[in-house]
Fold this protein.
Amino acid sequence: MNLQRKLQQLLRSLVQPLTAVLIGLLTGAVAISIVGASVLETYKVMWDGAFGNFYFVTATLARATPIILIGLGLAIAFRAGVFNMGAEGQMVLGAVSAALAALYVPGSGIIKMLSALVAGFLAGGLWSLLAGWMETRFKVQLLISTLLLNYVAVLFAGYLVSSPFQDKSGSAALAQTHMIDQAAWLPKLFQGMSVHMGFVIAIVLAIILYIILRFTSAGYEVRMLGYNPFFAEYGGINKIKVLLFSMFFSGGIAGLAGTVEVLGSQYRYVEGSLTVPGYAWTGLMAALLANSNPLGTAVAAIMLAALQTGAMGMERNTEVPLEIASVIQGVLILFVTAKITMNWWKVKKKAGDIHGAA
Amino acid sequence: GAEESAGKNESSTKEGKKKIALVLPEKIGVNPFFQQMDDGAKQAAEEFGVELKTIESTDHSAIEENLRVAVAEGYDLIITSSFEAEDALKKVAAENPDRQFAIIDTVVDLPNVQSVNFREHEAAYLLGAAAGLSTKTDKVGMVVAMDIPLMKKWTVPFEQGLKETNPDAEFLVNYVGSFSDPAKAKELALLQASKGADIVAGASAVGDLGVFEAAKEQGFFTLGQDVDRTEVDPEHIVLSQLKGTDAAAYETVKAFANGDFKTGIVEYGLKEKGVGLTYVTHESKTPLNSFVGQEAIDQVKALHEEIVSGKKEIKNPLSN
Amino acid sequence: MTYRLEMKEMTKKYGEFLANDEVSIQLKKGEVLAIVGENGAGKTTLMRMLYGLEQPTSGEIKLNGKTVKFSGPLDAIENGIGMVHQHFMLFSDFSVTENIVIGHEPKRNGFFDRKEAAEKVKALSEQYKIHVNPLKKAGDCSIGEQQRIEILKVLYQGADIIILDEPTAVLTPIEVEELLKTIQFLAEQGKSIILITHKLPEVMKVSGQITVLRNGKVTGNVLKQNTDIEQLATLMVGRELQKLTDRNQLEGEPLLVIDNLNIGVKEAKPILDHLSLTVNRGEIVGIAGVSGNGQSELIQAISGLRKIDSGSIRLGETILNGKSVAYIRNAGLAHIPEDRYLWGAAKEASVEETGLMGYYRKKKFNQSSFIRLNGFRKLVRGWIERFEIKTTSLDEKSGNLSGGNLQKLIVARELGFETDFLIAAEPTRGVDIGAMEYIHEAIIAKRNNGDGILLVSSELTEILTLSDRIAVMYEGKIVDILDRNDATEERLSVLMAGGNENESSTKTTTTA
Amino acid sequence: MELLDLSFFTSAIRMISPILLAALGGALCARVGIFNVGLEGLILAGAFSAIVGNYYSGSVLVAVLVGALGSVLVSLLFGLAAIRLKANPIVAGIAINFLVLGLTTFGLRAIFDVKGAFYDKNMEGLPKLDIPVIEGIPVVGKLLSGHSPLVYIAFLAGILLYIFFYRTVTGFRVLAVGKNEAAARSLGLKVTVLQYGAIVACGILCGLAGAQLSLGQVTMFTEGMTAGRGFIALVAMMLGQSHPIGIVGSSLLFGLMDALSIRLQGFSMPTQFTAMLPYIITIIAMFFLKDRGADSQLSGQQSSR
Ligand SMILES: Nc1ncnc2c1ncn2[C@@H]1O[C@H](COP(=O)(O)OP(=O)(O)OP(=O)(O)O)[C@@H](O)[C@H]1O
Ligand SMILES: Nc1ncnc2c1ncn2[C@@H]1O[C@H](COP(=O)(O)OP(=O)(O)OP(=O)(O)O)[C@@H](O)[C@H]1O
Ligand SMILES: [Mg+2]
Ligand SMILES: [Mg+2]
């Protein structure tokens, strides 16, 4: 009986997102008809671009990798009750630090790779910690400070790769680091396909985070802090410590998102390559769509990535303009949280009202 | 790799037509020369009866993806462009040695790749020289999209030309911080004009439209990029630096259609008329603005001759 | 004659759950109707229907003989119904005046005429002898004053029927006195009043008619003169209340020793001023005092939630001052907090998670950082059984529990630590008499077990029933400590007011 | 002085007006409890519709109205999702940004058949207003006169919004909704109507911001021409704590720092560092905010569900 109720609940919770998908597709259909293409064919092409065969599935997963990681990082912060908007800066700093570590740390490929992972995590984590520290120490609102720190981080990374660490070999036209040693690359999962070890890292991390949040005392402390910081404090949870740790891991995982992109797919840090695709925003959406559940975040991230790879397929194979994909995506996301996560902001706001610190 | 799994219509010769893919590293719209490239390729495709598909990439990591899928989908020639695609092409071309590729505007040194290299620094030098000869206030400005290495190809030789023809001239540079912010570009142009610059060159992609508008409003003079912009507003846009991306794309498609496609480096400099400057290397539909004057043009023409004849070499600021 | 208000056979279903089952009430002009009943009996639900906040599943509401239907509070307000909510609905950043006139603001040339508004409020406040300071910020007002704002707001809106949902739960005894006087005065002026409360003495003082609810049904409808507290209690709980267990005589050694504690020495008025206090084993020490005299800060200082300036706090041999909350709890302190929603629970957390606070650190429930949920669930189920906590499941959000049931959960959790020392702050606030009995019983049992308890309550009866010794706090100092047998309500009241009988202090500040 | 001449300030005033307008719009939403991260999209919608209006009507006034209308429509869509369907406002706001970017790019192609930018030299931009008396005053005249009407409207909007919030009844109620929605509902205030009102007003303000961008600053529309101004507006709104005057202040601060960062480009520091200036100064400014924006609520309300 209990199972049946849970099943019913699950089905009911699916109605809303499915409706959203429907609305999104309908809007897209209108736009596609406007440009005079066949609606069904276009959608078929989009589907193929995302999941058409094994190759495209792997391409979708490759694209999902940084989005999952960013979403996971943000989910931690959201769980702890802080609105980290700084994933972009944390990711970029992570990426550039990872690239530099992989280039300049002496040793074998494995050592380079490991130190790059550590450096990427640390850079993102510390940058995020800065915002957390300003919040706990000086009550500088994290929501704003993280947003602002993004600009600073992106500009700083841009400086690093256009001046001191720029790859001046070759055409030297791009602001980018040298290419890292092949020995330090994260291996591809399948020969000739773009999905790489980073995806495995992301999925494992999602599972670990799920377990930590759900079953461990650390996870409990984070959740309670997010629900009600006063209750947490009263119960003996070190509010500041948990908040700072959450921010550190939140940013660290965002940094890892940049790191695996560098180590697994681009093999160097290229200015703009992480900011232009809007990974940070997409990751933010993934976390919010899944209500900060790590496993849900991973699923949502893959769906969002599929929308993008599907759009690329559409671009390659039809004359339908690329923007339509962005319209479909916009409409779909606009409606997809309708009612499901309706309480998020309100809850946050109340929490903010009582104490302002988190 | 990708072919086995993704390949759907391997039979490229089904209709007997050759299939060419033009994989652009960005969406068309921000940088005009991608539009030009697309136009040139399309024109050639039509004229020489080949099938052409233009694929715009949404972001950096989409480039490699699109190249791979283009390979898998059996295009006979895959053309791409610019530095952004360099890494991706190196990987994909190396993995597919039996397929032919071309890259416009940068060099990828692989046996199955044709590289079309523009020496736009030569044209930028001429533009700077012309500015140096024309300025009355001895102050010349340039509004640049972003402070990134790529843009040095415009700023450095321009300044060199400016200073060589007019040692007293002061060169003002400001960066917009974006390729698509005409409003800020315009403010920067106004700022440079307020500092006394009577020429402000645009090098800010879409932002150039803002620079032109500022020139029109404040009555100073400005210089365009890539195509002959003097037609837009001959009174204020007095010169344009030219870059034959359309020609490059056209020639590449044409060569492939006619079966005389060769890999290796194809140079497009002043000598090859692949880059240039209005009135100096190319005719313009609009008459020369008297602010520049024929005398200056003649002097620049002389410099042009020196470069073409190899007497003078302009250093590419990006190579070391 | 026709009644001013009749609610006939009102039924409200939440899904399958019957919150109100054919409840009927009547009310005449100038009458005070008390509605009493356990937590979750359906009192608030009935009032929410009357105020248009909920739509009845069936039933009829008549005003002056005419059937009415309210689609929202606006309808109710326009029909002369006003409600003072259990939890105040005030805008803390707005002035008292603004809070009162909102919704019916006086205008001049289309602009909000705050001057006229203040004058109107002043006039109203004089007319009904309800004193407020119109220009003060609502957030700076004491709880009692906030309540007066709420009542004035309702009067300003022109209400003839005024609903007061548990208005006295958060008031000090003096404020309660004032409120009851106000209620009587309003009734004399022809207003009809519905009063919901758990405090039967108050009911007996002001109401004419009393309706008792249990499990959504009316179990009694009596006139005041025909009933007494015992009968009401029986109607409410469905059984007779027990006498509290006898306390055995214990001579325990000192357990909690506070020496010369100071907080806020740099402020104009120190919050805690050279405070010393000892709680022995096997003893309940009650702290009496008008709220805002440092009780909250004292509790927070002991439990590690607030920094102290100087002094020392010892629990047995362990020094507590300067230590973290976790350390202090570990040393043997449990703590029933004064505000259950602010400190004691997280509304979004489940019943299980709320119960888990503190236990997750214990070896028994923690295996190398993993929480052993199965064992813990058994424990919580035990609490639920022992304290008769009404909840659908352990996964229910604690915010969905009625206040009384949440309080029982918190009490069970804190008692479950089996510590030597317990702080019980307002342990029965807003809780029905049945539940109050349980909680009082549990506290006595803990004392008889030889543990020490510091009881803080604004309820003098509670202090007098439970405490072995009573310390009176005034302006951050302990002004006197009385033995259980020497203490009377009158003596305490005098001491609480600073020792001067004529100076009835209303000086209070908002907690937290 | 070379660094801070007059054009420095005039330019700053021009540059911040779209940001100011949008931030005021965002503040209206924030005041009714809706955090609007879709400002970027709303401005872009305004900029695009203004150009469409201008192109078809040839009248600047109509263009500005169409700009406002376009933005209002998008804003209502946001309101529908966030209020009616109770979608997470942040997700809805991000969606709006994506959606409008796609729609305007698509619109460029569908309506004007161009990619990237639409520019027509026959198109009239917003006129520059010379203010009679002030114009004559030496320094002030140059500073304050000769801007587009929307620049004045931006600053005026700040003052009007201040009057609205703190002097009018409706404004008072709007504030009430944001402070305590439950209480406002219990009083029978038309919370939803007020929220939609704020959303529409925010649309109008963002539409004006867009029109100022595409018809005031320049006379053209280019893809993504907002270039992050919506997010800066968001920051200005938060830094100004949704208080109209605070927002004018924080916008000015940001605008001046941005202008200063441009001036510093000429010096030997790398431009990345000069470009950081406005952001770092803004962060530093937050250290000095007294009331950091968290509205405290009465203890009684915290315990209410
Ligand atoms: N929105 C709701 N959804 C489901 N059930 C509800 C809802 N509101 C109330 N109930 C149910 O109705 C019952 C009666 O609630 P009500 O608020 O009327 O109790 P009460 O008598 O006011 O209790 P208390 O003394 O604690 O204030 C509750 O026990 C609860 O189970
Ligand atoms: N969504 C819901 N689901 C289940 N029960 C609900 C819900 N909403 C409210 N209730 C019930 O409403 C009842 C009363 O709500 P109310 O706000 O009056 O509680 P409480 O009485 O605040 O506590 P107290 O007055 O003792 O402090 C509770 O018993 C609660 O269980
Ligand atoms: Mg109740
Ligand atoms: Mg209650």
